[in-house]
Amino acid sequence: VPAGRAALRPCSTRVALEGINKPVVDRIIRVDHAGEFGANRIYAGQMAVLGRSSVGPIIQQMWNQEKYHLKKFNELMVAYRVRPTVLLPFWNVAGFVLGAGSALLGKKGAMACTVAVEESISDHYNNQIRTLVEEDPEKYKELLQVIKQFRDDEREHHDIGLEHDAEATPAYSVLKTAIQLGCKAAIFLSERI
């Protein structure tokens, strides 16, 4: 459990699926699992390049939270009986390349990538929260708790990126826009495929 966070209770191996909007829940869990998988690969790529630098411990701290997020979504996939996206092998490579590539630009480049990705993901989580609240906040209480906590973690990562000079990266707005377009495409595809 990341420092300063309340532990989320482990999921039972199965949850009551009666009365839930299964297509909505499947789409949410599938895409969030893919996103957390991709985030893990991004941080792995950044650590491969910058792990021994002064920013290495900061990247490792964020990566540790992402590892926890992925573990939780692995549990939720089993509990809700959701299949993963078939694109995981692609996200495996693409995430690592994005992480390593941004880190090759230096600390600022890695942090610019972090800001772009985490802003996209926290916005995506906010959309999911709205969807589940509109459906039935009591019925989706556990899932809402998970998504809200992880959204807050992603916002924290976003802020850490800004604190570590992400915006000082050359061509920051172009890089941020390109990464966020990639995130939107990944979200769209992972929800469906």
From TrEMBL:
Pathways involved: Cofactor biosynthesis; ubiquinone biosynthesis
Domain of life: Eukaryota
InterPro entries: Ferritin-like_SF, Ubq_synth_Coq7
Pfam families, alphabetized: COQ7 (PF03232)
Keyword Membrane: yes
Alphabetized GO MF terms: 3-demethoxyubiquinol 3-hydroxylase activity; metal ion binding
Keywords: Iron, Membrane, Metal-binding, Monooxygenase, Oxidoreductase, Ubiquinone biosynthesis
Swiss-Prot/TrEMBL GO biological process terms: determination of adult lifespan; regulation of gene expression; regulation of reactive oxygen species metabolic process; ubiquinone biosynthetic process
SUPFAM superfamilies, alphabetized: Ferritin-like (SSF47240)
Entry GO CC: mitochondrial inner membrane; nucleus
PANTHER family xref list: 5-DEMETHOXYUBIQUINONE HYDROXYLASE, MITOCHONDRIAL, COENZYME Q10 BIOSYNTHESIS PROTEIN 7
Protein name in UniProt: COQ7 protein
Species in which this protein is naturally found: Smithornis capensis
Lineage: Eukaryota, Metazoa, Chordata, Craniata, Vertebrata
